[in-house]
Amino acid sequence: MNDIKKKRPTIKDIAKESGYSKTAVSFAFNEPSRLSSEAVKKILETANSLGYFPNPLARNLSLQKHFSIGFLLPQNINHTMNNPYILKVIEGISKVCESENYTLTIIPPLRSSIEEAVKSAAVDGLITMGMGLENKIVEILDKRNIPLVAIDGNPSQNIPSVNIDDERASHDIMCEVLKRGHRNITIVSLSEDLFTDKISNIKTVPLLRRQGYERALKEYGLSLTDERISILLSECTFEDGVNLYSQIISQQPSVSCVVTMSDIVAIGILYKLRVEKIDVPATLSVVGFDNLLESKLISPRLTTVDQPGLDKGIFASNLLFDYIKGKIENTTRIEVPYKVIIRESLGEFNA
Amino acid sequence: MNDIKKKRPTIKDIAKESGYSKTAVSFAFNEPSRLSSEAVKKILETANSLGYFPNPLARNLSLQKHFSIGFLLPQNINHTMNNPYILKVIEGISKVCESENYTLTIIPPLRSSIEEAVKSAAVDGLITMGMGLENKIVEILDKRNIPLVAIDGNPSQNIPSVNIDDERASHDIMCEVLKRGHRNITIVSLSEDLFTDKISNIKTVPLLRRQGYERALKEYGLSLTDERISILLSECTFEDGVNLYSQIISQQPSVSCVVTMSDIVAIGILYKLRVEKIDVPATLSVVGFDNLLESKLISPRLTTVDQPGLDKGIFASNLLFDYIKGKIENTTRIEVPYKVIIRESLGEFNA
DNA sequence: CTGAAAGCGCTTACAG
DNA sequence: CTGAAAGCGCTTACAG
């Protein structure tokens, strides 16, 4: 606590002070079995008395490892860290990191650029979520030799990934809606990912889901362009859900069911409907996607598609560690199961 | 993609290939203004064609910086990443990191040891939350010269911190309970932090809150040891809340109000009460702490203490960056405001 | 069991 | 405007 510029002791100081070599000091910390117990004891004592800890930066440079994997945040940090579903995935990743003795680095855009962030990310591997991955980013990672696993990415890209069958899941839940007689339907789609490479022929998750809805609609003689069907866009936040209600009504006053691509948006809508004293599902049904814990807490409880966020995180990070350790080379794709959950927010349509 | 061992090109390769020196290559990336535009162009072109990116590990070692701050996870990763309140704080930290162009490193215990994790954490500063910080950990950080800010730490320790006035907030909400006639009260306390240094005289947040409750009780002629008051312990999770109900009833069948130290626990209890068809608040009132978004989504909506999680994260990380940049030296403590929020889950006691 | 020395891949004061 | 060289603080093959 003196005012003299604190200089952390290095391996060199410990060597000098203890009378052993730098090599010995390193061994004392990393491979004590190679030293006499006397040497280890002496070195550790000196280290302790000088308050020495090996500098991780230097250690990592020698070892060519960061002992951390990265989670790449898409553009807007609000939308990410406010989404319980993403947080569930992060929880899964953290668990695996913990058991691998790795840290988890949350990587926001650097100087507003995801690309910049990826260029200098201090990680041994990277997980992305829900991004239409720019080819540029994939290329950088490839050159930097950093493995990548995409969660909810674009199955059409040649990237290791963890997904559910979004097309089929969306088809299935839309069928439940149609089966109950609804025909005036508002679909709340997630915005196209901002970073989708428009040129390439990438099928993003929102697109796949819309295709699933479309297939179900066709089975009932409808289409996405039918005047009874309207489509709105929304960010994946509670607030956007709350604000969406007026749009929904003005677009299509006769709507009887709102189908969203995200529970948190659906919950925002339900919240607003409660405030407006609109009866769910008697007047309006609402359907979500994700099956958050919150979805069974609100009333009416939300009809939705259950997809295992925790497992997605666990699978993705296990896969990533396999790549990091060189256990596998080929592009592995994991498909996890989903399940349609019918609860009270979806009712029969009463003409 | 050839099978030849991929070796990332280094500054040396670019120097050789471009005909300039390593110094020049470094400048081209970091201080192009010091080079002729011709040199910069040539170097960047070569770098690009060879697929070169500066190695962050080497760069950081030279710069003696990690460009990342750490968030230290207490013992159990489940309890942390499942707690929406903590996640809100992390969101606040992420925002500041983003604007500082830093990453956020989530640090789980290393080989089951927080101490080990702290010894080798590759960060420029550290934020902890709700830990009774072992002196050992503070000492390590001090020796490693890594600044620390504690959120919901122990105001009694000499550590920069961000807290609300937990004693007073707890007093205030307990008064609301007592004012409404409740006398048979079950307090659900958070477990003592596992890492509290038992020897020292540290006042943890749970302890402060209990003292606040106690002060309010005394004002109404009660005490913590009164037979009408019972105290239970719980982890800070939804599941623990759900499971708590049977304990609450068996400990004190005549209980009319449950006062918890955490919304997520209170929400678990409310969920269970709904399943059990127990009328809230007519039969039993429930009170939380935090004011999560979820607390206004459930019905009945939860009476609680609002404390600004996002702001706590923002204040703590701003403070941390001030230390990192050497802008301040002294131990700064920030107290953020709280607010008691009365909602339907707290009713009058009807004898 | 122990140590001298090269290497990890950058940055930067200094000299020209 | 450009470069040779020292330095950041470790690890580790090699020799003894």
What does this structure look like?
The structure is a homodimer of 351-residue chains. Chain A has helices spanning 11-18, 22-30, 37-50, 56-63, 77-81, 84-100, 114-120, 135-144, 166-179, 205-219, 238-251, 263-275, 309-324, and strands at 68-72, 103-107, 125-129, 148-151, 161-163, 185-190, 229-234, 257-260, 285-287, 304-306, 333-335, 339-341. With 351 residues, chain A is α/β, with parallel strands linked by helices. Chain A folds into 3 domains: 11-63, Orthogonal Bundle (434 Repressor (Amino-terminal Domain)); 68-163 and 309-335, Response regulator (Rossmann fold, 3-Layer(aba) Sandwich), CATH 3.40.50; 166-306, Response regulator (Rossmann fold). In chain A, the strands form 3 sheets. A 6-stranded parallel beta sheet of chain A has the order 2-1-3-4-5-11. The first copy, chain A, has a 4-stranded parallel beta sheet with strand order 7-6-8-9, sandwiched between helices. Chain A has a two-stranded antiparallel ribbon with strand order 10-12. In chain A, helix 8 links the parallel strand 3 and strand 4. At the A-B interface, helix 4, helix 5, helix 6, strand 2 and helix 7 of A face helix 4, helix 5, helix 6, strand 2 and helix 7 of B. The first copy, chain A, binds a DNA duplex (16 and 16 nucleotides) through residues 10-12, 20-24, 26-27, 30, 34-36, 39, 54-64.
